[in-house]
Amino acid sequence: MKSICLYLQMHQPFRLKRYRFFDIGRDHYYYDDFANDDVITRIARNSYLPTVEALKEMVETSGGKFKAAISVSGVVLEQLEMYVPELVEALKDLAKTGYVEFLSETYAHSLASLSDIEEFRAQVKAHDEKIYALFGQKPKVFRNTELIFSDEIASMIVGMGFKGVITEGAKHILGWKSPNYLYNSIAAPKLKILLRNDKFTDDIARRFSDTEWSEYPLNAQKYISWVAATPAEEAVVNIFMNCEALGEAQSRESGIFDFLKALPRYAQEAGIGFVTPTEAVTKLRPVDALSVPYPMSWTDEARDVSTWLGNRLQNEAFHKLYALAERVRMCDDRRIKQDWNYLQASDHFFFMSTKYGSGKSSYSPYESPFDAFTNYMNVLSDFIVRVEEQYPTQIENEELNALLTTIRNQSEEIEQLEKELKSARTEKQSARTAKAKTVKAVKESEPKVEVAVEVEKPKRTCKRSCKKADK
What we know:
Elements lengths: L2 E8 L22 H29 L6 E5 L1 H10 L1 H12 L3 E3 L14 H19 L5 E3 L7 H9 L4 E5 L2 H4 L7 E4 L6 E5 L1 H8 L14 H9 L7 E7 L3 E2 L2 E2 L4 H14 L3 E2 L2 H7 L5 E2 L15 H4 L2 H11 L2 H6 L3 H10 L2 H5 L18 H22 L6 H49 L17 H8 L1
Parallel strand pairs: 1-2, 1-8, 1-11, 2-3, 4-5, 5-7, 6-12, 9-10
Antiparallel strand pairs: 6-7
């Protein structure tokens, strides 16, 4: 049976405030709280909350036949916990249905997979721990930031124990092949690959409310008929999009949520089911192996990483940031760790992109890419100062790491000796207690011997007789 695999992604960065050169070394708080509160609250109200409510309704009204997947970055979860806690509760209720799968990704929605494998693994681990803590699920399928994927990244993903990965059905990789099959990685054959169908996705995410589109207006029955018309052997149609497409890019007034809710009914009538990514990679067999020698993504026509690392500004900021990775990992300062996560979000590099000319991107809070670069580098300069105060650059990473390893080993040795001492004291005390109990038990078990002693009574004498005798 043909199936639809629907996946929605939620992410918003912590936006930086206007940070000037003269703030470096004086102000260590980098974020625009007002903007962050305003943006996440608006998007949650218009998109996230109604989408989660719609998904739960679709599961319930379909009797569990409808299934979907969601990916939520760690940094957006932090914002939701601060500003929209009711959405976190709604996501928990959605997870309890058992028909919505939470996917793995990097905690910071970062580009770490392109630079630092250790940081990449650490972020994936941190993200999955938060997902488990909040929603009780251990992710089995991985979704990288912006669907970035390559043969090298495939090997990293398999090394972390994932069964499958979601990425873009890019034409320069597929050639004549269809994205509506399950594939596996040529670099890591055990890794199954689900490919986004950009046509079916963009029909909803981009064209749904476009009055100039030849298929406007789009309804659920028409859409499902297009899916049903694909070749019978094409087992799975992967529809992956940003959640903001529902309620933000396509407003509630466009009828997007009514369209979404009607999909399960028409799919059932057409004999089309819904599957989660884990079900897809478990039940289906790969039809071919794909090679992705260079990183690809789901953005722009090129489907590469040039949107984030396509100019000198972006690369300068990117390399300066990740040059700190080794020192930050050695650090135990909670604020530094937190800022490190927030500064890695791919959005900061996207705002520096010049692919749209020197003007402002519609998604950017800055007037120009150069403005975005200047502000980010001012913040990064202060962050560098804070890191170097703890771990000076005069000490090489290897030397510093060796020193810290020695300190950690000594601490572990001291801790072990303290444990052994405590154990010895406990054993000694236990021995004393046992000995005392034994002595007491022996005394209590000894038979009691009663000795009868006869006491000779003195003879009575008559005082009167004695006196007569004396006379």
